């Protein structure tokens, strides 16, 4: 409970230890620095001597800590600044030649206090980062590591631990109890997977976070035990995962003065540390030694003489003359300031960096200030990207213990409201010496937060005035007449805080161009009318003639361009083939662009059904009321043209009830448009992963049937069609569902046709992440087993009802394939499937589909089943699900059809009902395919 209370004081009570530091390679050093700066109650910037450094890179520190002889209290407080890095890094001086304990937070002399169950506890702290690498050797059963930062320091047990290695268990050793505690397991399923994850995330292969229940400890001890089945993988290009153990610990160090064991004894000692006036000794959280702090109403460094100074309230005037009021191109008006004595209070002091260009920071270092609007009470802000959302509510609070919080939580907006004091306007006006609204034409108004209620008051200029209400005569009159020309339809006269309008004198009128009253010109009224009408009529006729000629010219250009595209896309050849083949004309039709334009209401965005990697699909209604889906390329590239022609050629050659049917095409555009039957029920992906209230609900029977139908379609493509076709982009979003929820395999833009005498084809690697065949990715050689691997991922979606790449409980993206292969080793399939599947499916069916998916996902393609074997397995599961005495006729007929097809596969033939139709189909489509010059 006390550990959590302390973390709550640090602004991270709702975050686990892993949220304390988001990475262990130093990327959040500045964030930790600024968080500690805000949280340490009394910031002291004084040092023991003027020659002692108090900064290393972005970090600051104060006595009793220091760098160099005479700048620190004792060797335990000695620091080292490594200037060889950019920015420089700060380390504790642990006596070794190369220190491994890096300081990642500012060190301030005054600590912070908590009230725990009536007991007042005080502590001083800062964050450190300890790193160590242990080489692994063959034959060793365990590796031990211990860390003690020093006798002056205690370790707050809530920490973040990162272990980069593979195949080992991490134990926390409790020497006082004589036992050890398993805190995490690090496993890497294979070299390829580990390296792939390692390349994407430096801390992906193995890391863990934990919270130890003790309050403070002096020493941390760990033991790393390799798994017995693990061997050092010397063949790996990333040997760091198996040859070394990289340990990084980020933890809060609590420090105290150990000269004496109590405050009463310390005061009698000549080496008493609390040397400043208005300082006092207090017992630290670790209950060893003592720490110093400034008494209430004072702030600063209690460890140096004169270090504690009185806390000042709001200063209505700057204490320093000739203050600098600019940082780069940003104006810094009072009550803000960038120098000591130039701001109204310390929470309004800003820091201007010495970089090029300069950057204006809030004094806590978390927030970059982009502008200051004193009249509106707004501060433009930009958060540092490495700071977590859980710290937003404290980043703009005062860095002083006695300063009130005068900033309103911005809730990720680009600006934040602020107040000058947490008083009401009535209370503020009574304090004439500290009243902030000192300009004559200013007034007081309250600052109210929707979450925090009343915050305080701020000042603003009266209406008709602008400027700075916080300085004398800061609100100046606005000349509305000059600022807004044409404000009056007459003479405009500026007054103090307002303006007046008077009408133009007789025989004058207001001239908008001259913005003044001018004499009225006498003209021949009728002559003006005649001239105006004649000019208008002439311009109208000229405009109509021009529009007519331009429109006619555009139509001619469009016709020529469409004819050019038609010829380039082999439209003349296809037109001749269709006109000479009555069977082909029944199957396909060549549409004009105007027909498809009318069918889609000029390609209205409201008609868009979906977007994919190969184009945009629109819903169209033809003149005969036939509903179709029209595929149009969104970006015109040479590769897109090849993909669309490729899909035309492929769909022209296949005729299967579970493959989307090509209805026709349009060749009058730069990229051909495809027209195919409209599938009304969306995709399998939408039914599985979108809001079930808006989509078709699928039962387990439906899932088995859809999987079987899709497998049959892919089997047809691989082995039953006249030319083998590899789909290359099998995924649940490319399996559409018709009105009866029958599967329709679609999107052949990435597919490739394979000659009969070849088993694979070398292509540029394409596909969708999450469905990708690892073997195809490595070799670049596409074969039928690549579609089998992708279909295995679809089976996992049906079983587990998770997306191919989903967000795990840890917040990281995780591959569904990796998740399944890892979980199936230690758990039964029924323990990892979705609740609906567990409720509707039998254990035999779950085990059967899980086993089939595992075979499809094998890394080596030769070990995967063929699509025919996949289809047969799914059909058998469907048959077993029915009553043995009642076989559905449709299923029986389908199984007989597949058995007949399987018998014909040995001779690479495919029987169809009408031989005449088949010959007509191929005579047309093969000739069109040959003319298209498709890439192989």
How are the SSEs ordered, and which strands pair?
Elements: H1 2-9, H2 29-39, E1 55-56, E2 59-60, E3 79-82, E4 89-92, E5 101-103, E6 112-116, E7 119-135, E8 143-147, E9 153-164, E10 168-174, E11 179-186, H3 191-200, E12 208-217, E13 220-226, H4 240-243, E14 244-255, H5 263-267, E15 279-282, E16 291-294, E17 298-300, E18 308-310, E19 326-327, E20 330-331, E21 350-352, E22 360-362, E23 367-373, E24 378-383, E25 415-417, H6 425-430, E26 442-449, E27 453-461, E28 465-467, E29 475-477, H7 480-483, E30 491-495, E31 498-502, E32 508-511, E33 516-519, H8 525-568, H9 571-579, H10 582-587, H11 593-599, E34 608-612, E35 615-621, E36 627-632, H12 638-653, E37 662-666, E38 673-677, H13 684-689, H14 700-720, E39 724-726, E40 735-737, E41 743-745, E42 752-754, E43 761-762, H15 774-779, E44 781-782, H16 784-800, E45 805-807, E46 813-815, H17 816-823, H18 835-840, H19 843-856, H20 867-881, H21 889-905, H22 915-932
